[in-house]
Write a structure and sequence with these properties.
3 domains, about 75% helix
Length: about 525
């Protein structure tokens, strides 16, 4: 089965627009430091770089180029990229006329390699790599010829293809969210007032506002298009006949959703006039005023209940009996003190909530990359103790908190770093944890296969390599599939790996080791 060789023009254009918009938004922060710099040159060239990266990716896959052929194909592309970046670095800064720069480069060639050229070149290569990765995931989602016939004979391979497609869709969504976080940080850095601490925010540039809207719209369209391609590939597997109107309605619904999101964004506050401490003080003052009002209402209700028996007793008393004095109502609490400038509390709360979300997102990435650090600090144990204390107070009403903390604790304990290899000594398999043991089985199989001429390519996923290895060793196809499934569950799965799981992975590992030992290196 071969993928359908059709250039994904819509995906390439949407990816190019997204990356160019992100570059334009980040350029707003750079213009705070370099007011004379013109970012339109870099934005336009980054759009062309992203589009060219999509074309190169399509050509390399269509012609099945090797790594050497791809590098040979990229040599003129990189040369043209270097020339363009040198020109736009000079045009963007405009410190001297371009003719004077050409004369200076002629007599002093090393002056070409300055800091501005290095920064522009780095930005161009980064955009090209991101465009290549995005087009690779979009090509994974594309339908495959002969997939319908293989669905009846090789269901395991079809299941592996479905898993690869779901992972590719998840990577597209993750990059869109990560780019949105970078976009939000760039906009926050552009509006912050660095001259006066706590002063009023600085206005956003028109280019940054347009870039943020373009990035959001193109990102939603790209993700929606990717989901549609995934559904179309699934329908092709099942042999379902879907009318062409479904795609038109899907696109129409996507535009309606994007229009609604843009309308909501236009209604949100775009500026804030309070710092973090002022926001907390104003928010706590509003909460305190609300609590004081509730307490005043409860006090008045209690006073009325206490006055009711006195009123009943006054009815039974003789006519000349003195009446009990009335209890004066307590005065209402004073309103919170006003600040000097007009407080935009809602805008400030929205801004600092976004900052808190970004800080939490960054912390979660650190937790996933360095689980050993939080294990040493015993944060997971502390969270479990807090959950137990909270559950003892609220019992069933706080059960969701315990579930969330247990999930966070399992994420903290999840080892994502590669398994350390001991040099100069034999590895004792009995001392390894079940998850690390399954990883060792898979990686030792990769090492033995590489010694027999069946090395795994750097860009291959475990499922792609399993299909290639099974085509070379058909007698060990079941063992290859079982070991791959165990490794994927141990490497990427959230569930803990038990000793029974490690024992089940050990049997296909031993049979594969015996098979690879009998095979001579080709």
């Amino acid at each position: 089965m071969q993928p359908v060789r059709v250039f994904n023009l819509r995906g390439a254009l949407l990816t190019s627009v997204m990356l160019a918009a992100l570059v334009a938004a980040v350029s707003g922060v750079i213009r705070r430091l370099l007011p004379d710099w013109q970012p339109l040159y870099l934005t336009s060239v980054c759009f062309l770089i992203s589009l060219e990266a999509g074309i190169v990716h399509y050509t390399a896959r269509a012609e099945r180029m090797s790594l050497t052929d791809t590098l040979r194909y990229l040599a003129p592309e990189l040369f043209v990229l270097a020339v363009l970046m040198r020109l736009i670095a000079s045009l963007g800064l405009a410190q001297a006329p371009l003719g004077d720069d050409l004369v200076r480069w002629l007599y002093d060639p090393l002056s070409v390699l300055d800091a501005a050229f290095g920064a522009h070149m780095f930005a161009g290569i980064l955009v090209g790599v991101l465009a290549h990765v995005s087009m690779r995931d979009l090509s994974v989602l594309a339908p495959v010829s002969g997939e319908r016939e293989a669905a009846d004979t090789d269901r395991r391979f079809i299941a592996l293809v479905a898993v690869d497609r779901s992972l590719a869709l998840g990577r597209i969504g993750s990059r869109f969210i990560l780019g949105g976080a970078v976009l939000l940080l760039a906009l926050a850095g552009e509006v912050v007032n660095t001259a006066i601490i706590g002063g009023p925010p600085r206005p956003l540039a028109l280019l940054s506002v347009v870039a943020a809207l373009v990035y959001t719209i193109s990102g939603f369209l790209l993700y929606s298009r990717a989901r549609l391609v995934l559904l179309q590939a699934k329908w092709a597997q099942e042999g379902a006949r879907v009318p062409p109107s479904v795609e038109r309605r899907w696109i129409r619904s996507s535009w309606l959703l994007i229009g609604g999101v843009v309308a909501i964004v236009t209604l949100l506050p775009r500026t804030y006039a309070l710092g973090l401490l002022d926001t907390l003080r104003a928010a706590l003052g509003a909460v305190g005023y609300l609590l004081a009002t509730v307490a005043y209402a409860l006090t008045w209700l209690l006073a009325m209940l206490l006055a009711l028996p006195a009123w009943l007793l006054s009815l039974l008393a003789p006519a000349g009996a003195p009446q009990a004095p009335r209890v004066a109502s307590p005065p209402p609490p004073p309103p919170p003190s006003s600040i000097e400038r007009e407080p935009h509390l809602l805008a400030a709360i929205v801004f600092w909530l976004c900052m808190l979300f970004l800080a939490g997102y960054a912390l979660s990435i650190v937790v996933q990359r360095y689980p050993g650090l939080f294990r040493r600090l015993r944060i997971a144990r502390l969270l479990e103790n807090l959950a137990a204390w909270w559950a003892s107070l609220w019992h069933d009403t706080a059960s969701w908190v315990a579930l969330a903390v247990r999930a966070a604790g399992s994420a903290f304990r999840r080892p994502l770093s590669p398994m350390p290899v001991r040099s100069g000594a034999l590895l004792n398999l009995r001392r390894l944890a079940p998850r690390e043991l399954v990883r060792y089985f898979y990686r030792s199989t990769l090492r033995r296969a590489a010694q027999r001429g069946l090395a795994r390519a750097p860009a291959q996923t475990p499922y792609e390599y399993a299909a290639r290895l099974a085509s070379t060793l058909p007698e060990a196809q079941i063992d290859i599939t079982d070991l791959t499934e165990s490794f994927v569950a141990a490497q990427y799965g959230p569930q803990p790996v038990s000793p029974d799981d490690a024992a089940r992975a050990r049997r296909p590992w031993e049979r594969l080791r015996h098979t690879l030992r009998q095979r001579r290196r080709t």
